[in-house]
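User: Can you recover a sequence for this backbone? Please restate the input before giving your answer.

Assistant: Of course. Working from this structure:
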């Protein structure tokens, strides 16, 4: 064999050896990758243990409860203890309108309080216990897109409102039991609804005006109680035998607030004011009013017996307030400032968001006391709405309009 042929043969043998080694290396790398992903890679863990492995609100958390950039997946209805007195009950979003029921137990000095609320995405009902700080689903009935809920005082039933799923603007009102079983529909396209322990106030509006009627809580025996040529109004209970009616608020229109007696007679108690909103106390003795003035909201307290209007030391919108059961106290989300805008329109439409603190206003003496500075408890801003306080004034519940999450604060 010549030297040239010998050299060529050696080169071929060397090349085959390199190719064999490369193939073995690639095969080993492939096996290693498969073993890693099958056995070693960490998988997301779903947890429902309150306060364990959960991101604090405002710290890179999306509305689904999944931390941005990866991490532990959190159930949207898993409570998170933010501070000893503040709990985020649900990441949200929830339907506006919660029920807070408290009862005393002879064996404990601390009342047992249950917060019932509805998950907006699914329509399922959940109950949160302030004692155990745990959540239980009581109903898995699916009603997607519920916007608001009006609960009976004992929380056995909620009248929920939502748009039909046929891409129409039809508003459905459905009586949804706490357990989810049963239920019934009220008339479609009701303009407003309010509930008491024994009856339901429904409002139907059209181009020719509005009609207010009362029904039993089971939807039977509807009785007309008033009519008005006003076609754009809100109506609610104001004590046992009278009702509060006020024109739908706008910063461009003058509004009025009226009391309506059992005979259907309207008596104006406040107005005309731009952007007027109103909230009656449980007994109907007082009506809290807010109105637009010079680009911000002003507040007053109307004595319905004398029509005297008392000024208050806070400035907010009545939709950000709630009365205590005995008329003695008002809790409100009060913005640190009102950005330039048209109020309350811009707030309703979501064009403006506030940074609130919760204040307590004592009706007797009308002095205000700071209850909760939200930004000192969390790293997120609070725009409070749908406030509810229990009968014992022990628990305040509210929705953060910024992300529709639900919160509880021990008073």
């Amino acid at each position: 064999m010549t030297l040239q042929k010998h050299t060529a043969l050696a080169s071929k043998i060397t090349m085959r050896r390199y190719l064999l080694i490369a193939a073995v290396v690639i095969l080993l790398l492939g096996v290693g990758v498969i073993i890693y992903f099958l056995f070693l890679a960490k998988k997301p863990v779903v947890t429902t243990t309150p306060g364990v492995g959960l991101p604090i609100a405002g710290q890179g958390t999306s509305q689904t409860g999944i931390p941005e950039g990866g991490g532990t997946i959190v159930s949207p209805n898993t409570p998170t203890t933010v501070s000893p007195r503040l709990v985020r009950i649900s990441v949200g979003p929830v339907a506006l309108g919660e029920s807070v029921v408290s009862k005393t137990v002879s064996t404990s000095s601390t009342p047992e309080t249950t917060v019932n609320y509805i998950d907006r995405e699914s329509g399922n009902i959940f109950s949160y216990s302030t004692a155990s700080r745990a959540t239980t689903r009581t109903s898995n009935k699916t009603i997607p897109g519920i916007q608001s809920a009006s609960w009976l005082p004992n929380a056995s039933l909620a009248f929920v409102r939502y748009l039909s799923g046929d891409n129409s603007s039809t508003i459905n009102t459905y009586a949804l039991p706490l357990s989810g079983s049963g239920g019934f529909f009220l008339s479609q396209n009701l303009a407003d609804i309010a509930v008491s322990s024994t009856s339901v106030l429904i409002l139907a509006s059209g181009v020719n005006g509005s009609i207010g009627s009362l029904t039993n809580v089971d939807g039977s025996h509807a009785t007309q109680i008033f009519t008005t040529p006003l076609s754009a109004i809100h109506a609610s209970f104001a004590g046992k035998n009278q009702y509060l009616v006020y024109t739908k608020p706008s910063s461009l229109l003058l509004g009025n607030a009226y009391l309506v007696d059992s005979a259907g007679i309207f008596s104006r108690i406040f107005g005309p004011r731009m952007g007027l909103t109103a909230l009656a106390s449980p007994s109907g003795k007082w009506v809290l009013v807010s109105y637009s003035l010079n680009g911000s909201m002003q507040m007053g307290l109307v004595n319905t017996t004398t029509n005297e209007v008392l000024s208050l030391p806070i400035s907010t919108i009545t939709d950000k307030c709630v009365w205590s059961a005995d008329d003695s106290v008002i809790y409100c989300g009060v913005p640190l400032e009102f950005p330039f805008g048209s109020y309350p329109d811009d707030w309703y439409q979501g064009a403006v968001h506030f940074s609130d603190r919760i204040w307590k206003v004592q009706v007797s003496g009308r002095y205000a006391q700071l209850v909760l500075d939200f930004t000192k408890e969390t790293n997120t801003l609070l725009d409070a709405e749908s406030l509810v306080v229990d009968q014992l004034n022990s628990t305040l519940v509210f929705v953060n309009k910024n992300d529709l999450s639900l919160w509880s604060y021990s008073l």
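That completes the design. The CA atoms of residues 103 and 112 lie 5 Å apart.
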